[in-house]
Amino acid sequence: MTKHPAYRTRDAARVILLDANNNVLMLRGHDEHNPTRHWWFTVGGGLDAGESHRQAAVREVFEETGITLEEGDLVGPVMFRSAIFDFQAEHIVQHETFFVAHLDTAPVLSTTGWTDVEQRFVDDLAWLSVHDLTNATCEVFPENLTALITSMSTGWDGTVIRLRHDQSHTPH
């Protein structure tokens, strides 16, 4: 009988931050065990004890970008995704709740709230267009992000997307 590695399960909140031109704020990270592998991913992270998904989303946006949002600024949840990945020598199943927030302008960004882990594996924080994401030379998570951004350009129709259990390597 094959022994399967133990997986740690965690809940996470992610935010698709869109500016007035429908550019999305993304982070680019790398795998410390495979430094040539990079990927773009949305702002967000794990819930702290006792925190709601909306509270975690607002906190993570501030910590990772310096942008202050209120819970009422979040649209959705617009999508749910479960992902399986390895990060920092752990096997993780992460259940992600995605929100959208629209910003009138692209504010000045700050990385002063990054944790030690984020400082080690995040390489960039940038506003990207759908064209940029479509033509990215590395992976983009979640995989249907460009379609979601395009559909959100005219407002949210109330449809919640549920992605299949995704085996990816999106950490955080």
From TrEMBL:
The keyword Transmembrane does not apply. Residues 8-151 form the Nudix hydrolase domain. One of its GO terms (molecular function) is hydrolase activity. The keyword S-adenosyl-L-methionine does not apply. InterPro entries: Nudix_hydrolase, NUDIX_hydrolase-like_dom_sf, NUDIX_hydrolase_CS, NUDIX_hydrolase_dom. Its cofactor is Mg(2+). Pfam families: NUDIX. Keywords: Hydrolase, Magnesium. Belongs to the Nudix hydrolase family. This is NUDIX hydrolase. It comes from Jonesia denitrificans (strain ATCC 14870 / DSM 20603 / BCRC 15368 / CIP 55.134 / JCM 11481 / NBRC 15587 / NCTC 10816 / Prevot 55134). The lineage of its organism: Bacteria, Bacillati, Actinomycetota, Actinomycetes, Micrococcales.
